[in-house]
Amino acid sequence: MKPTIKIFSTIMIAFAFIFLNSCKKDKDEEPQPEPTNTTKKYALVIENGAQTVSPDGNIAYSAILVDVNGSVTPATGVSWTTSNSQLATINSSGVVASLGTGDIKITGSVTLENVTYSASVPLGIYVASAFSVAPSAIIWNKGDNLQLESVYLSTSGVTEPSCTFQSSNNAIATVSSTGLVSFIEVGQCQITVTATSIQGSPIVTVPVLVVGMPEIALPIIRIEVNPPSKDLFKNETQQLSAKAYKSDGSEATGTTFTWKSTESAIATVSSTGLVTPIKSGTTYIQASASGIIGQAEIMVNSDTLIWITPFYTSIPAGGTKQFTVQAYTITRTTATPLNGITYKWEIPTYGFDMFDIATVNSTGLVTLKSNAFAGMMTFVMVSDQANPWVGSVGSITVGIADDCNCGAGNASVANITVTNSQPINLNMISSTQAQINVTASDASSNPVTAPALVFCSDNIMVASVDSDGLVMAVGEGDATIKICSGSYAETTVNVHVTLMK
Question: pTM score > 0.85 for this model?
Answer without folding.
Answer: no
